[in-house]
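Internal tracking record. Fields below are filled automatically when a chain is submitted to the structure queue. Please do not edit lines marked as system-generated. If the sequence contains nonstandard residues, flag them in the REMARKS field before resubmitting.
Queue: standard
Priority: normal
Entity type: single polypeptide chain
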Amino acid sequence: MDMRQREHIEAVVAATTRADSAVSAPAPLRAHESIIESSWRRCVHQYGLDPSRMQEARILPQTRLREHQQRIDDFARIARHGLETLYEQVAGMGYVVLLTDASGVTVDYIGDTNTDLALRRAGLYLGAEWSETGAGTCAVGTALATGQALTVHQVDHFDATHIPLTCTAAPLYDSRGALAAILDISALMSPQARDSQNLALQLVRIYAGHIENANFLRTHRQDWILKLNASPEFVDVDPEYLIALDAGGRIVGHNRRAQTMLAAEIGRPIAPGVVTRESSASLIGVPFDALFDARLEELGRFVYSRPSELRAVPLAKSGALLYLSVMPPAPCFTPAAKTATDARTVDVPAPLAALCGGDAALARQLERAAKLVDSPINLLVNGETGSGKEFFAKALHRASARRAGPFVAVNCAAIPETLIESELFGHLPNSFSGAGARAKRGLIQEADGGTLFLDEIGDMPCALQSRLLRVLAEGEVLAIGASRPVSVDVRVISATHHSLDALMQDGRFREDLYYRLNGARFTLPPLRERTDLDWLIRKFLEDGNDIARGSVALSPAARERLHRHEWPGNLRELCNVLRYARAVCSNGLIDVDDLPDGFGGAAIPVPRDVEPPAQIAEEFDSHRLPPEGMLLMQYLRAASWNLSAVARQIGVSRMTLYRRMARYGIRSPNQRDANGH
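SYSTEM-GENERATED OUTPUT FOLLOWS
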């Protein structure tokens, strides 16, 4: 125990034993210190925690962790994108991102793998338990206890073990007002001043709102969704309030801000940071016309296509004016009724079932896969490029008992042959030229306890196939430069668009490795053969929905064009086409003109007797690009070849954009030299 820890323990004891807990400080600081001191008092007087007893972080065993993950599985799956996006914002500053359930157990986590050991020791890790009753005052536990977003910075923590940490958390509420989870970003070290975490607090609040709204929209897809804002300019871009109505016009869900606003409107205000079952339940079932000075039959006046300033609606009691945008229920997909011959059909886990919208061939593959999700045998997935092999592998992982472990994807065709051995198996310090002074765990070892996905296994160099065979046969991996192997427990799923049988006949793939990998083979149908194209279109458009743009529909002509297309790029091409069309369409309707140039038709002819100017020539050449290159060309032309703007729009760095342009042979007309070359 060092001097700082001793002083902290003395401060906690003094604060929890004195009668007068008033703090003489500026109001914002006084409010924060009041929250922290109240938490310290709860820890001592309610939970019986001893401030002089320093405790190591509590990490739950895998079996207990899986129980917590299963209870919040649907919510965590929706939240995952928010966690990843938030991590991209804070990773360079040393933060990790945690998602805990309502018990304070970390059910999802993103952090720097290079600091795994230190993070695990500090409890900033998967399975860590951060309730106030167990860990004392901390961001997660105190957010759970108060229902407020807050920062618990260094000496704010109750346990002196945690005073190097800075942690910022915000509660996540479900659409009925119940506290469902906590979003937290934490760092092992930071500047001493608490206000250094002000930006962290704002980021966590923003992304908590994004996750709540995404969960709301997914939960209430089959209900009427009302989006409201006090400003007509922002009602479609950034609505403050979300409300869901059933077919009878009664409230079946709301976001947190709508709950607070509506509770005050009906005379039951909610104190900030407090959630009560009574206040939430009092809103569920309330009819639309009891809250708004409008009739349910008039909802058609508030659709997205009308100008926002014409969509004003007053609250019934206060008369306050809000602007409203209405989303009708999404059409339901109703699977065909089962026949007597379907009696043997197995229950397909949700992650696998989400891959199919009724295509019989794919459904049979998924039913077979459902029987093998927890089998120890290795699986081989065949399918054309872009047909969804990695989605299939990830769904198998999420449906299995290994979902608490890592899913590690390795593209055997993308790693240079000179690096693939060290990437897969790892290496000891200075074990080969360029290895560096630090040891590196290989990707196989990173997948320990989870799933190793070997994409394009047919492109693995022959020299490494024998080493992979040893891993599969012996369950152990030998790093480069090591003398002793390390045991690993991985489930291997391989994928390829090649025929491994043909590669074996040519001597380019080991027969013994083939039979190790091919415990069971699955073949994914190409998109042109699937019968659920409309379902896929709707799924991709819904997954792309955000509050700013609202729902998007297809015109009959655009739908007919999509059905005519052969889809050589399969699901990847479909996703790119719809993403582009969604970005350029107007009034929430995708028409034929919104599809990428050249899609489903011939290239625009250029007159032979006229020399085309540079930019027209570039556009003419774009029709010979693959779908991904064609989509990139559309972004470039739409931005008038402003590369910085395009990089921001598609979420990559300028260097990554340059590399993609070079890959497809795209040259900007703005960057030609004086001779026009």
